[in-house]
Amino acid sequence: MHAFDVLGEPVRRRILELLSDGEMTSGAVCAVIQEEFGISQPAVSQHLKVLRDNGFATVRPEGARRLYAVDPEPLRDIDVWLDHFRRFWTPHLDALATELARGRRERRLRGSDDEADPRRTS
Asked: pTM of this prediction?
């Protein structure tokens, strides 16, 4: 299965988001996904299996529990593929960052002027 086929499924994307904060038991993942998507425990388990079989998640036993975690390698592969397209959004994000910095600088300067001007009172 291609990486985008795996990640094209909203449930699997959400599972990866949950796992991005650290290891979780399969039971904890199931509880969140069942609540948010209204699907059965076997369906959640199937999504976990797809993530595991395609290298996006790892599982390790701890007693009777199974702890899932993100495996970053396939995500790195996606990131490399996305490099071809970054030029479409990077300039826009750079321009936004510049505008935000300019606005902060102007507010700071106005704040300094306000403090120096005795006619201004808060």
From this structure: 0.69
